[in-house]
Amino acid sequence: MRARRIPRTCARLALLLLLTAAALLLPPPGQLLASAPRGADPPAHGTGVPAVGRTWPVGVRPRVLRGWEPPATVYGRGHRGVDLAAAPGTPVRAVAAGRVSFAGRVAGRGVVSVELTGTGNPPLRTTYEPVTPTMRKGDEVTAGEVIGTVEPNGSHCTAPCVHWGLRRAAAYLDPLTLLPPWLLQRRPSRLLPVLGVPVPE
Q: Alpha-carbon distance 189 to 174, whole Å?
């Protein structure tokens, strides 16, 4: 009888130690709920930027011609955004829901900025250029909604592209952190064919 009770006692002790360790390592439940807005994904890559993006600005998975290179100082050299390959006339979409805060021309190129809904105070703001706007300042946009088209001129890229930026107040951030991991995959997900249903063109 005693020989059978010893393994059970050890198992109960091990379970008790495991639960105690978990309770010590996890934050209180209220803190977990307060860490992100309701309905938002958790912050991406530990940057404090919520992964609220639901689509790429252009295409399905565009080629990144140049990534984000944060400057060492406020006025230092760097690349304050991401350059995405996009042919002139390509539709540019809002990556997440928000409100157009600017739609016009800056230094001869078209620029559209969108303040993203539910991203704190001050809110995150995405910028797209060179883009011919199809929206006006104050317009509400949904994720994936077309906000303009890529202009043929005004890009600083060697190949046609759209520059996508992200800021919170004066701080520049990596716009790719807005996208959840499933959107960053190199290969888009493919659904199995359904018999009798035509393939979309």
A: 24
